[in-house]
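=== RUN LOG ===
request id: a7f3
mode: sequence -> structure
chains: 1
length: 298
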Amino acid sequence: MSTHTSENSLKNWALLVILTLIWGSSFILIKRGLEVFTPGEVGAYRMVAAASLLLPLSLPRVKHLSKTQVKNLILAGLLGSFIPAFLFPMAQTQLSSSLTGVLNALTPLFVVLVGATFFNTRITQRNAFGLVIAFIGVIILVAYKEGGGWESLTGINAYGLFVIAACICYAFNLHVIKTRFTKLKSIEISSISLLMILPLALLYLFAGTQFSYKLVTHPDAWEALGYVTILGMVGTATALILFNIMVKSASPFFASLVTYTIPIVAIMWGVLDGEVLLFGHYLGIAAVILGVWVGNRK
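=== RESULT ===
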């Protein structure tokens, strides 16, 4: 019994480390993709790469779906994958990859906030206190400027709002999955929801952008494409499968630890890539992570 528990614990820790490295590296991969492609091209191709990898899982299951399930899966695909895939690159046109990774950690708090506002779940004093601390951290991050001073309200980096919008999308998606999917397994929800938004991603990518033209004319296009392919196939598709495995075998609290470890990897990649973090940034980062921990702990 103890051997099994030990093996299970080891597997969960291994999954946590792998997911931390994968998701924490997503922001630097987006940054590399943006060196050639527009935010829309990065987002759409990321979805194409992720959905394509999961076709063997999604296609055989589509014929068994009801019309209601299809509608809900389209909604899950838009909220959980498609819209955030566009929002993060848009944010990173003006935000460093490391700070984007930190702001992404706000997702669990928005799960609480969205649940209390739209899904009749209860918000505790601890949740509220955590939200206040985290939002103070967000304000510090978006208002702190390179020279070491503070921006006026008109000078605040509004691109941080794109990350917050993505976090809100994730929060709504989690509640949609919790309330509207009772019969489908989590891996089916992940793979089929990506399949549902694949036509939209393809249409936008090849009819609404210069993606194809860049592949032929831009000297660095194929290298950037490689980074975004890894982002989609590993950072989205593979990570979803691994996270589903971890959620099933570990406690919800353990699974939520990835929220706190992702920013560490994002910051490490950013610093290695020459991104400069000043005192105010570290202050904001500490407040965000502390707020998420306070609001999300048992």
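=== NOTES ===
Residues 2-296 form one domain.
The longest helix spans residues 2-33.
=== END ===
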